[in-house]
Amino acid sequence: MLRYLARRLGQALLVVAGVVVLTFAIMRLVPGDPAVAFAGPKATPEQLAEARARFGLDDPLPVQLLNYARDLVTGDWGTSLRTRQPVRDDLYLAFPASLELVGAALLVAIALGIPLGVLAARHKRRLPDFGVRLGSMLAVSVPVFWLALALQTVFAGNLGWFPIAGEYDTSLDTTSPLTLWTNITIVDALITGNWPIFTSTLEHLVLPALVVAAYPTGVIAQMTRAALIEESGQDHARLERALGFGETSILTRFALRPALGPVLSLIALVFAYAIVNGFLVEAVFNWPGLGRYAAESIRSLDTPGIAGVTLLVALVYVLANLVVDILQGFVDPRTRSR
């Protein structure tokens, strides 16, 4: 097990090194001069020279790359050209809201996708299977911005069942101020017992979480179905049928655990995809997360901000895959020898 963990950790570090090089390239390939963006279009040559010296833009590219990697390791992700604040601090404020949204969406996707996949596998080539496959195709195919606008119009605008936008009712900041611990609003409200903000956040979270959960639910259901059908054709499944176990018991008691390996790998993939996909949802629902920060950084050609968002999403993806690899080692010991 230790060799398996060491091998996976080494692979993760190689990917992180590649991501660092990629984000450095993004900072250098984005059109515009960072010195001009920082000092302003009316800056004097002396001010531009000072800005270029501050960001090390006059150094050779290999030296700039080494300095960039060193700064990242020490926690210096650069200074935003737009906010004039450290990028790390900006991301610390923006990322928890995105994590809150994507985390809720993945919980919904897992809670719905795996049972739907089991249902489809249990009734293969029958009406429930057809319904799950059709619903999965629709969930994967519908444009996320269209689904967001449709749910917002129907359930928030017309029916008034849910708030139309925002993370929670901001008037509660006066009547029920929230004490921050993790910067994740719903978690902090739960920890501190701030039930007005907790309830308001839940109400605001329903629609955007359902939109973000649509794609992961579809692909998880399809993958669970395919993995279970494959496992139900293995020798152990034939033995279990000979011993008198029913199809439902075979699928849920014996086939589901080995089938979770590819499903866990898929969850890591859709987690990173959901973060990026959530950018559009955040724009529609005015959710204060990475999407808003990334859009404003792109609009203002804030290269450190753009690179910071890219690096953070990539690191989250690598970490999610590492966690899934470790979980796979416990769920299915056969993966340790691969």
Characterise the protein shown here.
The chain is mainly alpha-helical and 338 residues long. It has a domain at 96-286: MetI-like (MetI-like fold, Orthogonal Bundle), CATH 1.10.3720.10. It has helices at residues 2-29, 34-39, 45-54, 61-73, 87-122, 127-141, 144-158, 172-175, 185-192, 195-231, 235-242, 247-285, 290-299, 303-331. The longest helix is centred in the last third of the chain and has 39 residues, at 247-285. The chain starts with a helix and ends in a 7-residue tail after the last helix. The relative contact order is 0.15. The mean pLDDT is 82. Belongs to the binding-protein-dependent transport system permease family. It is found in: Cell membrane. The chain crosses the membrane at residues 12-30, 101-122, 134-155, 205-228, 263-285, 305-331.
What is the 3D shape? globular
CATH superfamily of the domain at 96-286: MetI-like
CATH fold description of the domain at 96-286: MetI-like fold
Uncertain ranges: none
Whole-angstrom Rg: 24 Å
Q: Helix proportion of residues, in percent?
A: over 70%
Order of helices and strands: HHHHHHHHHHHHHH
Distance between the termini: 12 Å
Supply the CATH architecture of the domain at 96-286.
Orthogonal Bundle
Sheet having the most strands: none
Pfam families: BPD_transp_1, BPD_transp_1_N
Protein name: Peptide/nickel transport system permease protein
Keywords: Cell membrane, Membrane, Transmembrane, Transmembrane helix, Transport
Organism: Nonomuraea rubra
